[in-house]
Amino acid sequence: MADEFLTLTLDTGESQGDVKIKLRPDLAPGHVERIKELAGEGFYNGVKFHRVIPGFMAQGGCPHGTGTGGSDKPDLQAEFNAEPHVRGVCSMARTSAPHSANSQFFIVFDDATFLDKQYTVWGQVVEGMELVDALPKGEPPREPGTIVKATVSEG
């Protein structure tokens, strides 16, 4: 089976380009299916990165741009795995409840192995990490970076 990729076209305010994320259904089949479903429906198009912490991670996927919401789909069962949270890893955000991931996700800037086995890793950035690095910082950023478009492809 060919690898699948999620491509996020990002607008950082300074530049625009594609971030290519290798999907990892071997680690989190339910979460990968949700990401693909939401991307296919256009859910992520126009969504902001509402929480960007230097040296830690960039979080997006809230339709309100505030971190307070998700899709109208049911929350996911946790698929915690042993994949380490290192630079470029994509993982699902959630509340303190383990089975509360829905549509919000984060991309790790630097090693954050304290998150290991507590959040569901579902992908790895393979191209365009410099665009993630360029996202405006803040909680929330004054002028947040935006996902212009999210698409899934084989490659």
Explain this structure to me?
It is a single chain. The protein is mainly beta and 155 residues long. It has one domain: Cyclophilin (Beta Barrel), CATH 2.40.100.10. The protein is built from 2 helices and 8 strands. The protein has helices at 29-40, 129-133; strands spanning 4-11, 16-23, 49-53, 57-60, 89-92, 105-108, 121-127, 146-154. Strands 3-4-6-5-7-2-1-8 form an 8-stranded antiparallel β-sheet. The mean pLDDT is 97. InterPro entries: Cyclophilin-like_dom_sf, Cyclophilin-type_PPIase, Cyclophilin-type_PPIase_CS, Cyclophilin-type_PPIase_dom, Cyclophilin_A-like. It catalyses: [protein]-peptidylproline (omega=180) = [protein]-peptidylproline (omega=0).
Radius of gyration: 14 Å
Model regions low in confidence, pLDDT < 50 over at least 5 residues: none
- Biggest β-sheet strands, sense, barrel: 8 strands, antiparallel
Taken together, the total number of domains comes to 1
CATH architecture term = Beta Barrel
Number of strands: 8
What is the CATH homology-level superfamily?
A: Cyclophilin-like
Structural class per helix/strand content?
mainly beta
Mass-distribution shape: globular
CATH topology: Cyclophilin
Number of helical elements: 2
**H/E element order:** EEHEEEEEHE
Head-to-tail CA distance between termini = 10 Å
Query: What portion of residues belong to β-strands?
Result: 25-35%
**Overall pLDDT score:** 97
Task: Trace the largest sheet across and list its strands.
Answer: 3-4-6-5-7-2-1-8
Helix percent reads 10-25%
Query: Which CATH C-level class is it?
Result: Mainly Beta
